[in-house]
Amino acid sequence: MSKRIAGAVVLSIAGTFGAAGFAADSAPQGEQAVFTASGELTVPTDYREWVFLSTGYGMTYSPAANDHKMFTNVFVAPWAYRSFLQSGKWPDRTVFVLEERDSKGKGSIVAGGQFQGDLMGLDVEVKDESRFPEKWAYFPFSGDKPVRAQPQQNCWQCHEDHAAVEHSFVQFSPTLQPVAKKFGTWRDR
Ligand code: HEC
Questions:
Q1: Superfamily assignment of 29-183 in CATH?
Q2: ∠ CA(119), CA(177), CA(52), 5° rounding?
Q3: Ligand 1, pocket residues at CB < 6 Å
Q4: Which terminus of the chain is more solvent-facing, meaning fewer CB atoms within 10 Å of its CB: N or C?
Q5: Which residues of the chain have pLDDT under 70?
Q6: Would you say 63 and 93 are in contact if contact means Cβ atoms under 8 Å apart?
Q7: Which residues pair with 96 in a beta bridge?
Q8: In testing the pocket of ligand 1, which one of 125, 127, 161 has its CB within 8 Å of the most ligand atoms?
Q9: Domain extent listing, the chain
């Protein structure tokens, strides 16, 4: 093999690996949904190192007012976030976590306003086209115990009917909205 051809081969191999490295098309360790042998989802452990999307405060979806308002912090697996930035779509195997936290008004030097307190619950949403016929599945955690996917009417249907991008509520993530609009995946909801 001439030196020049050998160089070209090396370059093309480097190009292939380089492209795979940046394509963000598979979930690295710690950014995947982990299921038990019986198909329950285990609670995500590293999500606090994922990408933060937004926080809701006291959001309710029915006229019945909820007296005690909570914060909801939304995180998404970083590899899926990077893929979304390049396409406006969520790749297969995307995982979202919505963390519910108590809101507090008293403590330390606080004279007004609300800040976040204890963890009250964890809602997880997984896109997995081969595992779930409806593509998206929903898991409400109230502790460390693995959770089975919820029946469609509990979670899936509301996300199906009201989410702006596929099943995700991008309408409440101000930095993702322009991305979805740019790629034409946005729906007014
Ligand atoms: C009545 C409508 C409704 C139902 C039912 C519902 N959700 Fe949601 N969900 C929302 C809204 C609205 C948001 C956006 C909240 C925010 O961004 O703070 C959301 C956000 C989420 C997110 C963050 C990612 C995203 O899609 O934006 C997860 C995870 C989630 N929900 C899981 C669940 C689970 C698990 C259940 C069932 C136990 C459930 N949801 C039931 C309306 C609903």
A1: Cytochrome P460 (3.50.70.20)
A2: 30
A3: 54, 56, 59, 61, 72, 74, 96-98, 123-125, 138-140, 150, 154-155, 158-159, 163, 167-169, 172
A4: N
A5: 1-25, 65
A6: no
A7: 76, 125
A8: 125
A9: 29-183
